Amino acid sequence: MPWHAARMPTPMRPRSAPTATASSERIDGLRIRAHRVDQDVRGAGRVLREVSFDADPGRITVIVGSSGAGKSVLLQTLAGLRAPTGGRVLHDGAPPGRPGPRFGFVPQDDVIHRELPLRRTLVYAAGLRLPPGTAPGDIDERVDRVLDVLSLTDRADTPVGALSGGERKRASIAAELLTRPRVLFLDEPTSGLDPVTAAGLLRTLRSLAEDGTTVVLTTHVLADLPRCDRVVFLSPTGRLAYTGEPADLCAAFGVGTVEEVYEAVAGGSRAQDSMTSEAGAMDVSDPAPGSAAAPTRPRSGAVRQWLLLTRRAGALMWRNRLTAAVLAGSPVMIVAMFVVLFRPGAFDASSPDPGTTAMIMFWIAFSAFFFGLTYGLLQICTELPVVRREWIAGVRIGPYLASKVATVLPLLAVADATLLAVLRALDRLPAAGWEVYGSLFTSAVLASAAALALGLLASAAVGEPGQATLMLPLLCFPQVLFSGAFVPVPRMPLPGEVISWAMTNRWAFEALGSGVGLEPLWRRGASPLGPPLLRSYGDTFAHPAARGWLVLAGFALLLLGVTWAVLARKCREGAVRSRAGG
Ligand SMILES: Nc1ncnc2c1ncn2[C@@H]1O[C@H](COP(=O)(O)OP(=O)(O)OP(=O)(O)O)[C@@H](O)[C@H]1O
């Protein structure tokens, strides 16, 4: 007999399901209230209209409706991740505050890295979400427990990317269960799961609700409905068509099956009684001051987050073949080009080749820039949904960006040092002391750092890795043209000169040229080409290299600051919109 053909029994509460959380302490679930919520979405107009209902602690609320009815938008609005256009959403009687570690949101996308083994991924997730001082043993215990609860123990050592779609979905949910969340929002958690796995997942959510957590989910799977406590049925126009017990759904529309309810709702039917009773009973005129959903436990400190994120970024980089190929390939390719492009001995004071010396300095500056830019471009756009999700859980953007710098900058320094060492060994750079090479290395590393910051900014600003790749020529061309190497800055018209001020490559080129002593070489070297070239370049290399270093460091800090602001905005405005794309 189909479930909807009979009066609904009480929701399934299997005693055999392992409890979702380790502690016997009851969870203080979040009280959610939606009152006459309207929601406009750019490009789609009004998606939700006057939606009112409560989602209570210890209960599972399921949002259903036809495709495009606004279920995901409602879920995000309830979670406080979209501010309603009209009406209000209250968390514990107050406007939603910034979510924290005990706020779980599982969007339809994967929100965990794919490269690392599942257990390791969860250990990092736990470290970032659990309060400072949580012992490593406790973290391991929690990870083991959620793996067990979600039947993933035997997949613990499998890279997340090698899990099946259903397993990955459960893995995303596992990350949210680590903290005994007060509230858990899930966008279509059972889609793509086989019926047995889906039923098992609902049992896990039931056990979480029994501990006190407020659970809200969307679904298209009819079998999920009787396993929940409250159904919120949206009409295709985003109005509330029904809210109440699953058992009363069919009767409220005077039909026999849930499919017929969908048809009735599509035809404009609404179950008036159940809708109006709740909206009318609410008193939301005087919400408590302040905001709710603030983390009830302290989030982990900035330094701890930075350390964890740095370790994880290193592990991810190590495992990501594309990144590894870019990291290793660029320096090798550039050294090879140097060797075939330039003859040795250009810096020999007895017979210098001034034009070549300038070009070598330019290409070192550009190589350092290129390393930094390419390393940075792939860093954020490849994991933006994860960043957004972790921001919701309390991870700060400052430590996140600092972890990127801490992971990538040492690699850039190694690439720059290798470049200089190989060029010296091949006699493309002069025989000079540590002072000169210290200056060249500092200039190159700062050029790479500024380019890394530019790459991170572009990576944060674009929507996906494909767009980041398109940015590469866009960012490189002006750095070449306005560097002052091909057309010396004193020879540029005013607009060109102004643009050159904004090019990090210009400052790196000048600092490198100054550090290696181009000016004295050209002035006093044996080549007659030196003095006219010097006249053309004017005072390009006359300033101490430290001036260029200061400018490059300033650019790096400025660009990192802008990256921080862009990421903060993206996290605030679109923490969960990755599926919808905006
Ligand atoms: N970022 C966005 N930009 C433009 N339109 C959007 C965006 N997000 C949602 N929409 C639109 O809002 C409406 C509701 O979308 P939503 O994803 O909430 O529907 P849904 O009921 O969850 O659909 P489905 O069951 O297919 O997932 C749709 O018309 C959708 O196209």
Automatic annotation (TrEMBL):
How does the UniProt record describe the way this protein sits in the membrane? Multi-pass membrane protein
- Identify the stretch(es) annotated as Disordered: 1-24, 276-297
Q: Where does this polypeptide localize?
A: Membrane
Chief location category: membrane
* Keywords (A to Z) from UniProt: ATP-binding, Membrane, Nucleotide-binding, Transmembrane, Transmembrane helix, Transport
Start and end residues of each ABC transporter domain: 32-262
- The record lists the membrane-crossing segments as 322-340, 360-380, 401-424, 436-458, 470-489, 549-568
The entry's protein name is ABC transporter domain-containing protein
